[in-house]
């Protein structure tokens, strides 16, 4: 299972002062050196953290992979077509939200996402759709030719009881298996951290984790190298090691 680091919040700190430090691009290059499999950035319409300069420099300098998170809107689609990230992860975006709150409702917006995927594919950009672990949404995503899905893990991460957590974990496991059977790549992310990742890693079918806030927060205390390596060690130790029988 691979681990891509989301560096949006390095840009959040930079933008707090409107100056150049800390630079998310330098941070991403160091994270690569410490072993992450890719870098994720969300180019929001309001540019609250990552900006176009960051995306273009990352495209030029990264040796691993660039996953560009984005809303399916014309302006950002044009940038993605030009920059050609290794993956465009489409997310629903609301201006007022603190972070992405839920998955895309593909079923209710089939034509919109079909067109967005087609336009990105025409520029040779593979596409992932950020969706809930819901079989009907996955079927709809496959139907419109997405290459990957990214399963929203927010409900799992925010579960208020063990029962709720394991119930959601099962839902994610079934969803991931279903998506794999349909031939889709399966990523997952949102709210994953050094504690909840241990149970999460019992799911075999996920190709890649997209983790940001927990690792960036930990890096403030222990440094980026240790923060990245601790996560990589957990992945190595717990992947496939289910504590329960499923
Ligand atoms: N995946 C998607 C689609 C997201 O929007 C985010 C948040 O930027 C993440 C993964 C990473 O979430 P977190 O920062 O909670 O690890």
**What is the mean pLDDT?**
94
Bound small molecules, which ones? pyridoxine-5'-phosphate
Q: What is the number of independent domains?
A: 1
* Helix content, binned percent: 40-55%
**Order of the strands making up the biggest sheet:** 1-2-3-4-5-6-7-8
Rounded to the nearest angstrom, the distance between the terminal CA atoms is: 20 Å
CATH superfamily: Aldolase class I
Question: What is the radius of gyration?
Answer: 17 Å
* Secondary-structure element order, N to C: EHHEHEHEHEHEHHEHEHH
Question: What is the CATH C-level name?
Answer: Alpha Beta
* Helix/strand class: alpha/beta
The gross shape turns out to be globular
What is the assembly state of the chains in this entry?
single chain
- Total beta strand runs: 8
Written description of the protein model:
- The protein has an eight-stranded parallel barrel, surrounded by eight helices.
- With 246 residues, it is an alpha/beta fold.
- It is globular.
- It has eleven helices and eight strands.
- It has helices at residues 8-17, 24-33, 52-61, 74-83, 110-122, 135-143, 154-157, 162-181, 197-200, 213-222, 224-238; strands spanning 2-6, 38-42, 66-70, 87-90, 127-131, 148-152, 185-189, 208-211.
- The chain has one domain (2-239): TIM Barrel, CATH 3.20.20.70.
- The site of pyridoxine-5'-phosphate has 19 residues, from strand 8 and helix 10.
